[in-house]
Amino acid sequence: MNVMSSVMRGARWLLHADLPLLCTAQRPAPLLTCPSRSSASKQVRGQMNQERNPKVKLKVDRQEVEIRQGMTVAALALAMDKDSDHVLKALLNTSVDLDSLEPDSVLEDRWIKEAVTRSGMKFRWAKLSTSRERPKQDAQRRPPADPSLLVGRPPVVTIMGHVDHGKTTLLDSLRKSQIVSTEAGGITQHIGAFLVQLPTGEKITFLDTPGHAAFSSMRARGANATDIVVLVVAADDGVMNQTVESIQHAKRANVPVIVVVNKCDKLQADPQRVKQELLAHDVVCEEFGGDVQAIHVSALKGDNLLALAEATVALAEVLELKADPSGPVEGLVIESRMDKGKGPVTTAIVQRGTLKRGCILVAGKCWAKVRFLFDENGRTVPGAGPSAAVEVVGWKDLPSAGETILEVESEQRAREVVEWRSHEEELVKLREEQNAIELKQKLHLEEYHRERERLTHLNWRQRRTALYRANKSRFSMRPSEKTQSDQLSLPLIIKGDVDGSVETLLNILESYDAQQQCQLEVVHFGIGDISENDVNMADTFGGSIYGFNVAASRAMQQLAARRGVPLRLHNVIYKLIDELKDELSSKLPPLVSRNVVGEARVLAMFDVTVGKKKVPVAGCRVQKGQLDRRLKFRLIRGRETIWEGSLAALKHHKDEVQMVKVGMECGLSADDDVDFRAGDIIECFEELDKPQVTSWDPGF
């Protein structure tokens, strides 16, 4: 029975192992042929051992690492998804000097491949990315026109000079208007463009620029857009700062000058002194042998204005001003602003071609399809030829003042130009940022090497251990990014009515040089009235809103009041700057000044027992003023201050007193352990807080 069970068990093993039956072809096999018990057991054990120890090698996919030339240790570790230590370990027992390797050390190509191979990985070289240069799609000015196509055009005349010398009043008298009465503070704060037709029939386009010191950029823009500069100087005031600046602008733009000596009707007027002062600035009038015309006028009374008009027309004829009225339009943005009903609006001077409704214009990174053209009086005009000043409506965005206007053939072309210019500007910014990053990396690397010079004698393992210990406390004590700085700061939101106003305010703020007292930061600027976004931004940054010639609705005023956001609106620029200086000064801590009230000399020293403690007491005589126990005292020995603090007691004879006057003797003890000596001086002083004023001087 046992034999039979063994035979059956062996048969099952054979069937399970799929072993071949041992048969012979010559003889017929029996119905069941099986080996002996011992041989069957050996075969089964051998088959089971094969199953446990297979000889078939499984294919393992190795990690592939993308490498390139000039990789640093840190870059290779990042590509391998390891740390820098792994790269150093992979290069052990090679000729690489591991002690000199840092995370930013550049590896040779053979060591890059060696480190990857030793790590059990495959490498492949990175493909070189070839960036194609983008074709230039910018719009360009046309080449000079055929002289046969040129026709005469009116001169563009810019009126420049010092503030309050009568520039706008002169223009009012020429065009019989009252502009000056409508201007805030009685001073011009924008560029105004006007077409004036003289009684003789000639037309002149005048640009009225601000004379205040703050508007230097506007004056420069006016000089660059003009043919003739009329320099207005008050006969009773003479050559001033902005007069000199206007002369410099005219010289840089290579524009001829006509000197107008205004306010000649005043008793203090001295035109000769004015012309002599101009000699110091290379402005030589005709009576001194030069080629500059000088006209004496009174803009307020209208005296001698015809002579000024004739001088302007004569100079224009000498210059032979001509332009091509045909073809695509070219011009210059004089000013830009946001209008509630019209949207973005620009004041432009046409320099070439004829501007009409439907023209597609490009200026900077903005484009427009002209919907309306308005003259200086707000009347629509069908077109504007060379030298005409018009308001253009139809801009998609607001271009900056000073941008060149060019006409293109279609809206698609305009979008291409704007997109190309935006792309070029981004590239310039990227290059600037890259240069800044490289400079910062260079400085950081220099500092990094300086800090590690003392560790050069250690091997790389010891050096890393030492650096870890040195930096452990530094990193654990690193302040949080949300920690507020102790540095005082004033974030600003700047809003203006036109682009030139905002540009002027930003130019003024660039002159801020009191950063050591209080940081001044412009977090946002824009054109238009105060919006909810402005209030929210000021609330977020804890700043103030300054608006120039803009309004804030009642809802915005209430929102700013609820949020505690200062809202400061002005229509005179120097008043805005004065309030900004006051706010900067209010943020500064007060200056503490000391006022000496009295002085006493120590005559003798003695100890007084108070309870179980001996207290040193100084016997003194008051020499100056009086000693007041409620104030502070200091002990002076020679020229050195030994002690400063308060008194514990002040006695006259045996009585506690609050005050001891000059000539009286007293005994006093300090609230600290002080070593009084005979001959010491004790001063009584009071501390007074004096408001600190910002040191920033914008120059006006």
UniProtKB/TrEMBL annotation:
Region described as Disordered: spans on this chain: 127-151
Chief location of this protein within or outside the cell: mitochondrion
InterPro entries: EF-G-like_DII (IPR053905), IF2_II (IPR044145), P-loop_NTPase (IPR027417), Small_GTP-bd (IPR005225), T_Tr_GTP-bd_dom (IPR000795), TF_IF2_bacterial-like (IPR000178), TIF_IF2 (IPR015760), TIF_IF2_dom3 (IPR023115)
UniProt subcellular location: Mitochondrion
Single GO molecular function: translation initiation factor activity
Pfam families named among the record's database cross-references: EF-G_D2 (PF22042), GTP_EFTU (PF00009), IF-2 (PF11987)
Source organism, top-level taxon: Eukaryota
Keywords for the protein's UniProt record, in alphabetical order: GTP-binding, Initiation factor, Mitochondrion, Nucleotide-binding, Protein biosynthesis, Transit peptide
One term under GO cellular component: mitochondrion
Entry keyword Electron transport: no
Family according to the record: Belongs to the TRAFAC class translation factor GTPase superfamily. Classic translation factor GTPase family. IF-2 subfamily.
NCBIfam families: small_GTP
Protein's recorded name: Translation initiation factor IF-2, mitochondrial
Native source organism of the sequence: Amphiprion ocellaris
